[in-house]
Amino acid sequence: MLGLSDEEQQLYDHICETLRQAGIEHLTASLPIAIIVRTFADWLKAAAECDEKGRTQISKTGWATPTPWADDEKRLKMELGQWLPKACLTIPSLARVRKDTGEQAKQDDLFADLVNHGTSSPAHASRH
Protein backbone atom coordinates (compact mmCIF):
# COMPACT_ATOMS: atom_id res chain seq x y z
CA MET A 1 0.00 0.00 0.00
CA LEU A 2 2.76 2.44 0.90
CA GLY A 3 5.05 1.23 -1.90
CA LEU A 4 8.14 0.94 0.29
CA SER A 5 11.25 -0.87 -0.92
CA ASP A 6 12.38 -3.94 1.01
CA GLU A 7 14.95 -1.89 2.95
CA GLU A 8 12.40 0.84 3.68
CA GLN A 9 9.88 -1.78 4.83
CA GLN A 10 12.44 -3.23 7.24
CA LEU A 11 13.06 0.22 8.68
CA TYR A 12 9.30 0.84 8.89
CA ASP A 13 8.82 -2.43 10.76
CA HIS A 14 11.72 -1.62 13.08
CA ILE A 15 10.26 1.79 13.95
CA CYS A 16 6.83 0.30 14.64
CA GLU A 17 8.31 -2.45 16.80
CA THR A 18 10.39 0.09 18.73
CA LEU A 19 7.32 2.25 19.36
CA ARG A 20 5.35 -0.84 20.41
CA GLN A 21 8.08 -1.84 22.88
CA ALA A 22 8.11 1.69 24.27
CA GLY A 23 4.35 1.52 24.77
CA ILE A 24 3.69 4.41 22.39
CA GLU A 25 0.40 4.37 20.46
CA HIS A 26 1.25 4.46 16.76
CA LEU A 27 -1.53 2.58 14.98
CA THR A 28 -2.73 5.70 13.18
CA ALA A 29 0.74 6.95 12.29
CA SER A 30 1.44 4.89 9.17
CA LEU A 31 1.66 7.89 6.84
CA PRO A 32 4.05 9.97 9.00
CA ILE A 33 6.20 6.91 9.65
CA ALA A 34 6.32 6.16 5.91
CA ILE A 35 7.38 9.76 5.22
CA ILE A 36 10.09 9.48 7.87
CA VAL A 37 11.30 6.18 6.41
CA ARG A 38 11.48 7.56 2.87
CA THR A 39 13.16 10.77 4.03
CA PHE A 40 15.68 8.81 6.09
CA ALA A 41 16.48 6.50 3.14
CA ASP A 42 16.98 9.53 0.87
CA TRP A 43 19.15 11.20 3.51
CA LEU A 44 21.35 8.09 3.75
CA LYS A 45 21.82 8.14 -0.04
CA ALA A 46 22.68 11.85 -0.05
CA ALA A 47 25.09 11.42 2.88
CA ALA A 48 26.82 8.53 1.09
CA GLU A 49 27.14 10.66 -2.05
CA CYS A 50 28.66 13.46 0.04
CA ASP A 51 31.18 11.01 1.49
CA GLU A 52 31.99 9.67 -1.96
CA LYS A 53 32.05 12.88 -4.03
CA GLY A 54 32.53 15.62 -1.46
CA ARG A 55 30.30 18.44 -0.27
CA THR A 56 31.66 21.34 -2.27
CA GLN A 57 32.53 22.10 -5.85
CA ILE A 58 34.88 24.78 -7.13
CA SER A 59 33.70 26.94 -9.99
CA LYS A 60 35.95 28.09 -12.83
CA THR A 61 36.29 31.44 -11.08
CA GLY A 62 37.44 29.75 -7.86
CA TRP A 63 34.29 30.05 -5.80
CA ALA A 64 33.39 27.08 -3.63
CA THR A 65 29.72 26.15 -3.65
CA PRO A 66 27.81 23.24 -2.14
CA THR A 67 27.13 20.31 -4.42
CA PRO A 68 23.48 19.50 -5.19
CA TRP A 69 23.69 16.30 -3.11
CA ALA A 70 25.12 18.28 -0.18
CA ASP A 71 22.14 20.61 -0.40
CA ASP A 72 19.85 17.56 -0.51
CA GLU A 73 21.55 16.04 2.54
CA LYS A 74 21.17 19.27 4.49
CA ARG A 75 17.50 19.70 3.49
CA LEU A 76 16.64 16.08 4.27
CA LYS A 77 18.33 16.33 7.66
CA MET A 78 16.22 19.40 8.44
CA GLU A 79 13.06 17.55 7.36
CA LEU A 80 13.95 14.63 9.63
CA GLY A 81 14.46 17.09 12.46
CA GLN A 82 10.87 18.23 11.98
CA TRP A 83 9.27 14.80 11.44
CA LEU A 84 11.03 12.66 14.07
CA PRO A 85 9.56 14.45 17.11
CA LYS A 86 6.07 14.24 15.59
CA ALA A 87 6.34 10.45 15.62
CA CYS A 88 7.87 10.34 19.10
CA LEU A 89 11.23 9.24 17.68
CA THR A 90 13.46 11.56 19.67
CA ILE A 91 14.39 11.29 23.32
CA PRO A 92 12.86 14.68 24.27
CA SER A 93 9.59 13.93 22.44
CA LEU A 94 9.32 10.49 24.02
CA ALA A 95 10.02 11.95 27.48
CA ARG A 96 7.37 14.65 26.92
CA VAL A 97 4.74 12.11 25.87
CA ARG A 98 5.51 9.88 28.83
CA LYS A 99 5.33 12.87 31.17
CA ASP A 100 2.08 14.13 29.64
CA THR A 101 0.34 10.77 29.59
CA GLY A 102 1.68 9.10 32.71
CA GLU A 103 -0.19 6.31 34.42
CA GLN A 104 -3.44 8.26 34.67
CA ALA A 105 -3.79 8.32 30.89
CA LYS A 106 -4.08 4.56 30.58
CA GLN A 107 -7.56 3.17 30.11
CA ASP A 108 -8.99 1.27 33.04
CA ASP A 109 -9.19 -2.47 32.70
CA LEU A 110 -12.87 -2.98 33.38
CA PHE A 111 -12.43 -6.63 34.28
CA ALA A 112 -9.17 -6.44 36.28
CA ASP A 113 -10.86 -6.76 39.68
CA LEU A 114 -12.91 -9.74 38.54
CA VAL A 115 -9.90 -11.51 37.01
CA ASN A 116 -7.76 -10.83 40.09
CA HIS A 117 -10.48 -12.19 42.35
CA GLY A 118 -10.89 -15.30 40.24
CA THR A 119 -7.18 -16.05 40.02
CA SER A 120 -6.16 -15.10 43.56
CA SER A 121 -7.47 -18.22 45.27
CA PRO A 122 -5.86 -21.47 44.06
CA ALA A 123 -8.52 -23.50 45.89
CA HIS A 124 -11.14 -22.00 43.63
CA ALA A 125 -9.19 -22.42 40.40
CA SER A 126 -11.26 -23.01 37.32
CA ARG A 127 -11.43 -26.56 36.05
CA HIS A 128 -12.19 -25.46 32.49
Features:
mainly alpha; two-stranded antiparallel sheet; 5 helices
Tally of DSSP helical segments: 5
User: Could you tell me the number of beta strands?
Assistant: 2
The strands making up the biggest β-sheet line up spatially as: 1-2
What is the general shape?
elongated
Helix/strand class: mainly alpha
Largest sheet: 2 strands, antiparallel
The separation of the N and C termini measures 43 Å
Helix content: 55-70%
**Beta-strand percentage?**
under 5%
Radius of gyration from the CA trace? 24 Å
Overall mean pLDDT: 83
Query: Uncertain runs with pLDDT below 50, 5 residues or more?
Result: none
Order of helices and strands: HHEEHHH
Topology readout:
Blueprint: H1 6-21, H2 30-53, E1 56-58, E2 64-66, H3 68-86, H4 91-101, H5 112-120
Antiparallel strand pairs: 1-2
Helix pairs in contact: 1-2, 2-3
